[in-house]
Amino acid sequence: MSQEQPVDLQILNKVRHLIPESFKIERQKKWEVLKRKGLVQKILLKSSNRFKLEQTAKYDEFCDALDQATYGNNMDVIKQFEFFKESIKPKIKAGFQFGTINGVESLDLNTFETKKGNFKTKQGSTDLIVFWSSENEKSTRTLNELNTWLSQNQNLKLQINPIAVSLDDDSNNFKNHLKTNQLTQFQHYRYSLGWDSSNAFQRAMELNYLPKIAVVGKENQVIEVTRKAREVENIIKTYWEAGSESEDEGKYRELLDQQTFRFIKKALTQQISDLLSQNKSFAKSDFIRLSLTKCYKIAQDGSKEIVERSHLKVSYEVSVQSSQTIKLFLNNVTAVLGKDNVQVKRSIVKDPKGMLDMITSGFQDVLKKNYKVIQEYTIRSEYFNYVHEKEEFQPDVQVISKKSIQNLTFKEYQTIYSQVLPIFKKYQQEIDDSDDDSDNDEEQEEDKRLIFDRVNELTDCLKSGLELSLGQPFQTIQNYHPFGKDQVVDIEHKDDQVLIVMYWDDNQQCNRQFTQILKVLLVNEEKYKDKIRFVALSKHKQETYELFFLKNQGIEEVIEFYFPREENQADQVQYNVKSFPHFIVVDKVGSIRIQSQVEDLESILTSYIEESIESLNQKGPLNDDEYSEITQFLYSDARKKLSQLNNKRQFSLSFIFKEIDQGEKVVRFAPIIQYTIREGKQKYLDTFLSLLNKVVPLSNFQINQTVQRTLNLLFPGKACKLCQNELNDQTQQYYSPFSDEFYCVKCSEIVDTKAAGYKKFRVQDNLIFFNAPLVDKSVLNDIDVYRLGNNQKVKRGEQYTQNHALDCNGCDGDVKGFRYIALNCLPGKLTDLALVDFCQDCFDQIRTGGPRLEKIVKRTKIYGYNPSMLLLRIPFYMGYYDY
């Protein structure tokens, strides 16, 4: 009775007819021992031939048939055939014809104009082709290295045709990178669609992993494809010296006798694997792999022919500290197997700890050269946070030990940073560009973590000497130029004026903030005149934001925009800018009051305008007696006055005491009262604060307040603005809070399906729906202003969609068509997901009292929803809070 074929060969037989007969297919059994995984047995199918680029359609047909054949099998079989697909797919590698690159545009570095077309390698020349993207740091670094290498080897460049092909999907990013970086040694192209998974050439070059460098010979045949810039010179020179194209030669195959192979296999699986897995002397970042291979060639009829029985192969990459351990381990292995049966294929001894010492030593040498020393200091922050559940203040102490270079100026920081940056980059790059073996990823990450942590530690040390904290004086920001002008100006604080600096970039959060800020500045133009100055400092240079200002025409007339001369300027370090938007709010006497994101700018500005210079000048550090009096007060019965503010989404209160211990002196800052409160609830807090004022005057505190602004709505309307039909408290109706007009249901819900964008709708505002008759009239009051949004419209050039990227809270389905936001649910603090949304179907159930209404109410009960609640209708999706 014949033995049943293994599952993988059964599947292979089903699809074999879709593979060209000339392809050699092999079934490989591999026994591997990895230090961190132990013994693993693999069965691999692989092809020694690949489909050609022009056979991509046939390859796709084969993959579809294979997916059907493997469906329902276990994951090991599926993974086995995923590997097989990789081994047989079209791939541009050594020995292949390079072909033509279609769908690209060329760039003129003089005019920065582009021209669509294609690209072909030059017959008779050696082409160096680099695939890169401005958004991929490793690829930009590779391109810079090769550009420098070519500029320093002009004689070599005369014999090479250097081409750079960008995968940027944004033409502006591509152009801006080339404007900023002088990459003049290359001819530049860009794929018009960026990375395109349907592009056969891109898939064959595996351009989803950048960088990729192809060296193409004089007969348009690929010499080598690599990801490492340092290998390019050797590849080219080896090719020139050989005088011919390299071929994809088959590797030497070992064919040990069966008895010897079985002996090695038995020793590996029963003895040697334990020697490695139980060895505790190796470091966590050490990589060791032992492998043994047996391979058969599978003929068209399914018959097998043995082509390989290997010796035990060893690969390792260990630290200097483990060099004796690996030597001892290999001695033990050869003692078991005999020296002739063990082959060391790769042996690398690395020194990550030595790198750490070199980085630290280099950093200290730079400091010594600039007459600076590192000093240790401690930041002690004590918080007393009001806890609603307990109706008491809960202490929390944070102590952070830091190192810094004290009294560092802007110029000194820039000088030192420019000198240490090459040191940091050298070792980061050395680790980043080390071995690409995928089995080694985890160990490499451990080495990278060590190096990157040390670099971050020393960078933080340098930054700490420059960083300003709350309560410290604002320092002039330099090296920025205004919108539309080249002259650099200083951003300074003026006495008796509140200064707001917003660090921004072109992203959703900043764009939403700008919409709100414009409204606040325009509404309060007279009130803020000469009292408030608002400045927006961009992350990048002005040319990066051409599209932003095209979409937001006129915004520069309301807001002062400034742009940096250089990327990553020192002021971003000084003011601890780590994300965008980031606000710096400076009071009338020049003290930094806020360094963070801001929820409600208007309430902050209103309170800061009202502060007098006299009261601000009185603020200062507490003495020990005052500190004791405040803490005793916080634990006293006075806290019971806050019991009516029992909603933590609508009220928070913290007292903050901060000091910096520099050893010889301790610097204390004025105590901070920080609170958020709902409009109309201030009286309850004022009672508590008035009692505190009798203990320690409030003028001694820095008070940071955020007021959650609310509004009440009038209902019903008298008549529809468009058709003049009568409205009353029994009729369902819509209302625009932006035009203060009511509309009947019929006029509000007319949609012209032939029109595009907002032209579809007769009423183009975001509208509030009143589900009359209102059973619960309290829904008309205490509505968060921020929930109404800003009546945003899709701007020119932006895509719009009625497929909203969120789930309906009423049914968990997709929100398509109109989005309806419940205005009365979860009132209070703006959080990541504080909105309750309904889809069109659930909205129809709510307003008609449909059969699913009871289920919808039950599902949303946790949010406090009832069918009387007001619903804001949004036509197009621009973001969760962007409407």
From TrEMBL:
Q: Which residues form the Thioredoxin-like fold domain?
A: 126-222, 497-592
Pfam families, A to Z: Thioredoxin_8
Superkingdom to which the source organism belongs: Eukaryota
Put simply, this protein is called Thioredoxin-like fold domain-containing protein
